[in-house]
Amino acid sequence: MSRVDNLNRILRGLQTGSPDVEASALISEDGLMIASALPQHVDDTRVAGMTATLSSLGARAASELERGTVQEVLVRGEHGYAVMLASGSGTLLLALASKQAKLGLLFLDMRRAADDIRKVL
Amino acid sequence: MSRVDNLNRILRGLQTGSPDVEASALISEDGLMIASALPQHVDDTRVAGMTATLSSLGARAASELERGTVQEVLVRGEHGYAVMLASGSGTLLLALASKQAKLGLLFLDMRRAADDIRKVL
Q1: ipTM of the complex
Q2: The Roadblock/LAMTOR2 domain covers which part of the protein (chains A, B) (predicted)?
Q3: How many CA atoms lie within 13 A of B20 on its CB side?
């Protein structure tokens, strides 16, 4: 199994594990897609760019507000959550979840997936 | 009691209610401080500007990632949390909490404070 196959397997696992996870993607810090499990109508490039921007602003906010190195950024909108976390080697794991999602479970699953990603990269 | 006194009381209440909340502030969407309970060494202007930037990027991310109108943005750094939520009339409530903070309790207290702020504004 190639590295990309392994990464895709981890992303799919994140989505099959919690039905509230609608999409997930692994993105480089400079905003390029590495692997993704996104719905067809979603534009890869836009998601990748937005995730990297969110991460760099999160890093600046964490530093300015004396919170240290950024580890996770969460945006809750009226239709659900966008969660981004650092997954090692300069990569970002993004998950989009519905508003019914249990946030504690989502963080748990994402941290596990990030650990698995670190082993593959 | 003036409106500003009331707002300061709500912010102080947020901090006395949970010892893990280190600072809180109420900021206008355009990045101006309305009321604050920040430690002395923290620069008001910088915090206000950073909160407004975080909110506007959160709004863009929520919209691009199809999450609807932004309601909350959370940044977790290695030293703790920065949480921002919309508190009505174009204002943003920011809380800075230590890494020991219980996130569920923090959101609960902040949502209550935001409801109180809405009544005052």
Answers
A1: 0.92
A2: 7-97
A3: 18
